[in-house]
């Protein structure tokens, strides 16, 4: 997916584990199919996972995620437990982490997730101090990147309407910015980070983008997961004001238009979800 991606395989993971955590030396490592773009993930035995950053840019997430997870208050869902942090070795140049395994199936587009609004509100209610969220800054900070991505996407063969996209984006930018106190937010509520059992949200993965900021970013599941039929109930439960809802739509648009041209040939999960978002926003009329 990335030009500077480090090569990964099962043998590397098992050598790292044997060399640094001999208590798990006999556990087999199995690569997990994932739409993730930052880490390679392996299941270690039945109770653990190993997460290894793919690029240098993701290496700092190991420390940040551990700090963030330690600051979370009580939540109505399970979150990963950081069991150990490994050091560079065996030719692998960055820190890596061992997490506890969480049961559940990743959410699928178009499927309502009971408990999603409850989770968003519970996280927002956390009063612990936290770092600034990577994606919790004003929407204007991604204006240049979003417009460039809209232009790039319009030059592909995707059935994309750049005029409609720019209209959604303009409405989001025109919405008043968040002036309330910074809220705790996850920042990356992609379907693949949401674990469900019997249709109910039971676990949330990948906390490297979490922190405090504008809560609009955590409205993105309204478009990357839900449908026109289920979206209103989520909105009613979370009860954002109109400006926050508009900024949330803008965040969903920006993420999708940036992801799709970058990953359309290298990550089927991410590109399919980006198409889903754009279709829900009315700026994509089909998919390929």
Short description:
The protein is of the alpha+beta class. The chain has helices at residues 10-20, 60-71, 116-124, 143-154, 162-174, 221-224, 231-238, 242-263, 268-280, and strands spanning 29-31, 39-44, 48-53, 82-86, 96-100, 105-106, 183-185, 194-197, 200-204, 211-213. This is Aminoglycoside phosphotransferase family protein.
Q: What can you tell me about this protein's structure?
A:
A hairpin with a 7-residue loop joins strand 1 and strand 2. The protein is of the alpha+beta class and 288 residues long. It folds into two domains: 93 residues, Phosphorylase Kinase, domain 1; 165 residues, Aminoglycoside 3'-phosphotransferase, Chain: A, domain 2. It has nine helices and ten strands. It is globular. The mean pLDDT is 92. Strands 1-2-3-5-4 form a five-stranded antiparallel β-sheet, with helices on both faces.
Could you name the key traits of this structure?
single chain; 288 residues; alpha+beta; Phosphorylase Kinase, domain 1; Aminoglycoside 3'-phosphotransferase, Chain: A, domain 2; 5-stranded antiparallel beta sheet; 3-stranded antiparallel beta sheet; globular
**Structural class computed from helices and strand pairing:** alpha+beta
Q: Average pLDDT value?
A: 92
- The portion of residues forming beta strands comes to 5-15%
Strand order of the largest sheet: 1-2-3-5-4
Unreliable spans are: none
Distance between termini?
19 Å
DSSP helix count? 9
Q: Do you know the CATH architecture of the largest domain?
A: Alpha-Beta Complex
Count of β-strands: 10
CATH class of the largest domain: Alpha Beta
**What gross morphology would you assign?**
globular
Largest sheet descriptor: 5 strands, antiparallel
The total domain count is: 2
- Give helix and strand order, one letter per element, not per position: HEEEHEEEHHHEEEEHHHH
Q: How big is the Rg?
A: 19 Å
Approximately how much helix is present in the residues? 25-40%
CATH topology of the largest domain: Aminoglycoside 3'-phosphotransferase, Chain: A, domain 2
Protein name: Aminoglycoside phosphotransferase family protein
Keywords: Transferase
InterPro entries: AGP_Transferase, Aminoglycoside_PTrfase, Kinase-like_dom_sf
EC number: 2.7.-.-
């Amino acid at each position: 997916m990335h030009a500077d991606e480090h090569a990964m395989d099962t043998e590397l993971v098992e050598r790292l584990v044997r060399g640094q955590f001999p208590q798990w030396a006999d556990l087999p490592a199995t690569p997990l199919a994932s739409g993730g773009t930052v880490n390679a993930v392996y299941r270690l035995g039945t109770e653990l996972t190993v997460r290894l950053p793919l690029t240098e840019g993701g290496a700092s997430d190991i420390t940040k995620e551990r700090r963030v997870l330690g600051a979370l208050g009580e939540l109505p869902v399970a979150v990963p437990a950081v069991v150990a942090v490994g050091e560079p070795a065996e030719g692998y140049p960055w820190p890596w982490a061992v997490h506890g395994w969480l049961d559940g199936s990743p959410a699928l587009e178009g499927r309502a997730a009971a408990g999603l609004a409850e989770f968003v509100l519970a996280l927002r209610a956390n009063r612990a101090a936290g770092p600034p969220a990577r994606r919790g800054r004003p929407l204007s900070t991604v204006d240049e990147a979003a417009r460039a991505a809209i232009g790039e996407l319009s030059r592909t063969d995707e059935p994309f309407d750049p005029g409609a996209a720019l209209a959604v984006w303009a409405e989001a930018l025109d919405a008043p910015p968040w002036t309330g106190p910074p809220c705790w937010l996850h920042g990356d509520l992609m379907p693949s980070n949401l674990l469900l059992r019997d249709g109910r949200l039971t676990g949330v993965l990948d906390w490297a983008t979490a922190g405090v900021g504008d809560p609009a970013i955590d409205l993105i599941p309204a478009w990357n997961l839900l449908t026109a039929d289920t979206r209103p109930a989520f909105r009613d439960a979370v009860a954002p004001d109109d400006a926050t809802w508009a900024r949330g739509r803008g965040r969903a648009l920006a993420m999708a238009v940036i992801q799709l041209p970058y990953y359309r040939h290298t990550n089927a999960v991410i590109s399919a979800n980006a198409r889903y978002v754009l279709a829900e926003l009315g700026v994509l009329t089909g998919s390929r």
